[in-house]
């Protein structure tokens, strides 16, 4: 497929663990991007923070991360005996994984201390109420927002430090999962593709932007189906376009 084409990457989880991790990863990126805010957009940051805490409270993220890192270590250790492998790079990666396991073991709460933060708890209680964070509802929050940016940034960085180990472990685990498979160019007709493969957890799908199609995925870690749907369905020539061969790229991770 030509490099000149702009490709859109879609990702779809095939088990519950990866589904939760993708959502958490999305929230983490949004949180870090929006951590520098003013009084006019402050609530978005706290909505993101609240959703991250909700996921952590409802799922044993730490145990899943430790298990996944151990599995990655076993897979990577096999490569140490393969000729031509960049051993120093591999040793460095294994060292990072060992450090993360140790940090995760010593930090069982990972953000749970923010549950006991009176400031954050009071805001979280009002987030589900439409307009519930007005200045008369949360006068202490209104006062906090009047402080200098440097003061608020210091407080925000302290909150984010509670997630430091989680963010690092999540980032590295998702990186290793994505790198476990390469994209392959495939062809399908009727905008439909299906396949079976043992023990996959994540599909990564590249679609040419000019096709204006997005994938709808169903399946599990052994079998999946992809149907490509138009962003803006049209009646003109729709049947002819749907029956035509369609080229895309797929990585089964």
UniProtKB/TrEMBL annotation:
<keyword id="KW-0132">Cell division</keyword>
<keyword id="KW-0131">Cell cycle</keyword>
<protein>
    <recommendedName>
        <fullName>Cell division protein ZapD</fullName>
    </recommendedName>
</protein>
<dbReference type="GO" id="GO:0043093">
    <property type="term" value="P:FtsZ-dependent cytokinesis"/>
</dbReference>
<dbReference type="InterPro" id="IPR027462">
    <property type="entry name" value="ZapD_C"/>
</dbReference>
<comment type="similarity">
    <text>Belongs to the ZapD family.</text>
</comment>
<dbReference type="GO" id="GO:0000917">
    <property type="term" value="P:division septum assembly"/>
</dbReference>
<keyword id="KW-0963">Cytoplasm</keyword>
<dbReference type="Pfam" id="PF07072">
    <property type="entry name" value="ZapD"/>
</dbReference>
<keyword id="KW-0717">Septation</keyword>
<dbReference type="GO" id="GO:0005737">
    <property type="term" value="C:cytoplasm"/>
</dbReference>
<comment type="function">
    <text>Cell division factor that enhances FtsZ-ring assembly. Directly interacts with FtsZ and promotes bundling of FtsZ protofilaments, with a reduction in FtsZ GTPase activity.</text>
</comment>
<dbReference type="InterPro" id="IPR009777">
    <property type="entry name" value="ZapD"/>
</dbReference>
<dbReference type="GO" id="GO:0032153">
    <property type="term" value="C:cell division site"/>
</dbReference>
<dbReference type="InterPro" id="IPR036268">
    <property type="entry name" value="ZapD_sf"/>
</dbReference>
<comment type="subunit">
    <text>Interacts with FtsZ.</text>
</comment>
């Amino acid at each position: 497929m030509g490099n000149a084409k702009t490709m859109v990457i879609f990702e779809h989880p095939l088990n519950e663990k990866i589904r939760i991790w993708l959502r958490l990863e999305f929230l983490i990126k949004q949180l870090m991007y929006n951590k520098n805010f003013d009084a006019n957009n402050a609530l978005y940051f706290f909505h993101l923070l609240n959703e991250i805490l909700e996921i952590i409270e409802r799922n044993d993220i730490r145990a899943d991360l430790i298990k996944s890192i151990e599995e990655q270590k076993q897979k990577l250790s096999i490569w140490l005996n393969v000729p031509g492998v960049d051993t120093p790079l591999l040793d460095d990666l294994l060292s990072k994984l060992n450090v993360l396991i140790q940090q995760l073991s010593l930090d069982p709460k990972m953000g749970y201390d923010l549950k006991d933060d009176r400031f954050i708890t009071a805001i979280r209680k009002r987030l589900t109420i439409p307009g519930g964070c007005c200045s008369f509802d949360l006068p202490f929050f209104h006062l906090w927002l009047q402080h200098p940016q440097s003061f608020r940034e210091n407080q925000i960085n302290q909150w984010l430090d509670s997630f430091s180990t989680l963010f690092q472990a999540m980032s590295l685990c998702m990186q290793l999962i994505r790198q476990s498979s390469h994209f392959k160019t495939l062809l399908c007709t009727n905008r439909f593709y299906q396949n079976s493969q043992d023990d996959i957890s994540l599909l990564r799908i590249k679609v040419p932007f000019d096709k204006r199609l997005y994938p709808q995925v169903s399946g599990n870690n052994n079998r999946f189906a992809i149907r490509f749907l138009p962003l803006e369905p049209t009646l003109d020539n729709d049947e002819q376009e749907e029956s035509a061969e369609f080229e895309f790229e797929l990585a089964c991770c």
